[in-house]
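Standup notes
- DV: blocked on the single-chain target, sequence here:
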Amino acid sequence: MLAAFKSRTAPMRLDTTLRPICFGINKNVSVDVAKTVGPAKFKMYEHALYTMAQLSRIVYCDSGIAWNVITKSLGMSNDVVNKVITAYDWAYVGSRRKSVTSQPGDGSGLPMESYALTPPATGQCYGTYISTKDDTTCLILTVGTGTPRLIGGNSIFKAGDVIVSFKGSSTIANFKHDLLSQFTAADLQSLIGSTGIKVAGTGNVVTGAFIRPLVAAWSTLMKGLQKHIVADGTRLFLTGHSLGGAYTTLFAFLLAEGKASGTLPIMTKVASIHVVSFGSPTVLSDTARNTFNRHLDSGLVTLDRVVSQRVAARSAATQLLVGGIAGPNDVIATIPAGFTHPGFKPLATNIGPEAGGRPYSIDNIRKFYGVDSKTRYRDPATWPFTEDIGLGDLAKAAQLKALVTGLTKVTTVPDDVVGLPAELAAVKVTEDPQAGGFGSQKNVYAKATQTHIPNFISVQGSAHSFGFAHGEYLGMFFMGGFRLAGMKNPAAKSDAYFELCSDGVKIQYTGGLAGGRRSRRGRRSVRRTRRV
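- DV (later): unblocked, structure below
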């Protein structure tokens, strides 16, 4: 009787994640409604998370390998996709150019990256791969005939949806820079004047080091979006890992502000923006966070901020009260100091928020929505793929290898497990819940977070990620991005714009786009097909 009474009187809470869309329920959720969701519908949510993790990893590949991985495996289980990436990395590591001093059309005869250039592809194009001269890289896909595994089954995606994935740091040197750099605060409106977007209010301070590359690449990014956003009512999904997660968050912020203010014409065709980030650094001030969160409450934006952790995210002080030991957790989600994340999350002063109807650990989120989950890793009840949930286990290595060999025709594939660089091996911290603090903007947030289900989602990686949680998300191994040099433009001179088509990859290499400047006299364009 007491349990029933508590259920009837439990407060309604806003869930501004992707979950209500996956479940087909109102975002104003009661405990009674949540319990009716169950495993079958929850599979759709986990399928979306797994798919976004796949695309967050695929964008670390260069365009030729990305084309193959998408064609052969996107939408299969993460074990398969991860191994397919490894297979192509291994197959082409020997043919990669050592020099980056040439570019198409310079007369050297060297290919742009790893592959021979042949006449242009003629098939239907479904994707765009952009890499600026400063190595800001993203992948844009239109869901449809080019991505058949993303439609049907447990997938929430439908034809015409557009997905954008931003690449994070592609080398150890860049990663160390992201980890150790001192970041400066900057007013958002003052930085984005060239985009034409008007931001609501004042005092929206952001991490300047993360917003400037987006502004520099703006014209190229808009060119890509305009190619893919063609129908009214388009749903736009954004994702990224690490630095890519920061780009994803800020890009969503700019697009939402542009739509709300009517200052970004392309957004008139966009019905909603859905952000899924993995291990994103902090990017916003308290004021900017509250401005962003208004888009969550309005329904224009959803946010799922995934962080890999061995234990639930509690500060050292509150661990004595709620139990659990420290890390090792993803350090990147805690930096740079002085900034915060968008969305809602329990305060450090809250005791037992998950028991009070604000779950953030994936197992407790499952339980809240009617799944009897006992793991913060993969749960058989909500596993969304037809492939075996344990296909990535060592005991089934031969089975996985045979499957991947059949997909890729690459017969020699090394083990996936990548050793962590010694200089990073000791990085182990716990992300604290959002501090309460003082000031009007903190008070606004402290009150609002009590009525929201957290956008923060704590997941656990496999045993391979125990020493470095940032290197794996939902079975996708992002340390693989460090195995090779990573995608970067030859000589870092111009923006590279690739079109992924059914029969190959077109290259348009255009000078003068980066930084918002375009010189027709200095412009040159070379179109080729990359075939592997």
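- Follow-up: The mean pLDDT is 77.
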